[in-house]
Amino acid sequence: MIFFLQANAFRNAHKIYVNGSDVPDAVASFADLYEHYNLPSYLRRNVASAGYLKPTPIQMQAIPLMLHGREVLACAPTGSGKTAAFIIPILVHLKEPAKVGFRAVIVSPTRELAQQTYRECSRLCVGSGFKVHVLTKAKASANSFGPSSSQRFDILVTTPSRLVHMLSQEPPAIQLNSVEWLVLDEADKLFEDGPSDSGFRNQVAQIYSACDNPKVKHALFSATLGQGWRSSATPTSPLQSGSSSASRTQRRMQ
Ligand SMILES: Nc1ncnc2c1ncn2[C@@H]1O[C@H](COP(=O)(O)OP(=O)(O)OP(=O)(O)O)[C@@H](O)[C@H]1O
Predict the structure, then answer these.
(1) Is the ipTM, as predicted for this complex, more than 0.95?
(2) Where is the composition biased (Polar residues) (predicted)?
(3) Contact 88, 125 (CB under 8 A)
(4) φ, ψ at 144 (rounded to 5°)
């Protein structure tokens, strides 16, 4: 009981709000994270080289959740370190490079955000051997990622339209049946209503269907928690774990 109260007091002090059962404790520091979870040495080195002295509140709670294999719906303000909050646990889950095609896909609403995520992911991957790709027009060919390619790639960062374009080719120029983690970044924007041919919702639905590995897990990160996308986003999620900001400084995991 005393541990439960301490864990909640810690969350309150950092304005972390969680919903869901058996939510693992937040970590107070990277040392705390390394003590409780087995993070590879390359990742510890890269966190240190990035100059990250202490996890941000979203990282304190989202990293342990995802390390426990929990699906998350997370909300935290812009610039609060959401990217590392999902990249770090994904790298731990993937363990080492494999030649089975993409095992993690991160979908961002804009090319700029995708490039930013790609850069953060690449620097956290240094020394791991993982192959990270950002989907650009030039690479959008079956030769790069299709069944006849080497399959030597692990993590894909993409906008929905680029990925759907590849999936829609006959035969599909990319296969997503090995995906273990599908992350929607800026998820509120991806679930925004729009004209039927340009809105993201249909594209996201196609991407969800293409990631047909029965073990695939979903994580949704956003700076705002609107009602519309929350109901669309979660039918496959047994847990809603995330963070929402009532004010810029508040974070909620639910
Ligand atoms: N623990 C940390 N300590 C210090 N800086 C960090 C930490 N985690 C991430 N950062 C840095 O903070 C900046 C913002 O991080 P990031 O882009 O992931 O935020 P975000 O929440 O995804 O923002 P956005 O909503 O704009 O995508 C980046 O430069 C990143 O390298």
Answers:
(1) yes
(2) 230-248
(3) no
(4) -75, -45
Query: Cβ(10)–Cβ(24) under 8 Å?
Result: no
Distance (angstroms) between ligand 1 centre and the Cα of 75 equals: 13
- Most confident of the following: 2-11, 136-145, 158-167: 158-167
Q: Do residues 133 and 106 lie in contact, with contact meaning Cβ atoms separated by under 8 Å?
A: no
Which pLDDT belongs to residue 96?
Answer: 96
Ligand 1 atom 5 nearest Cα? 52
Please report the pLDDT score of residue 94 as a whole number.
97
Please report the domains of the chain, with CATH numbers, ordered by start residue: 2-253 (3.40.50.300)
User: H or E element: which one contains 161?
Assistant: helix 160-167
16 DSSP 8-state letter: -
Nearest residue by C-alpha to atom 22 in ligand 1:
82
Name 251's Cβ contacts closer than 8 Å, sequence gap at least 6: 14, 15, 16, 17, 57, 58, 61, 75, 76, 77, 80, 243, 244, 245
In three-state secondary structure terms, 26 is coil
User: pLDDT tens-digit profile of 222-233?
Assistant: 988 765 555 555
- Atom from ligand 1 closest to the CA of residue 83: 18
- What DSSP element (H or E) covers 145? helix 142-145
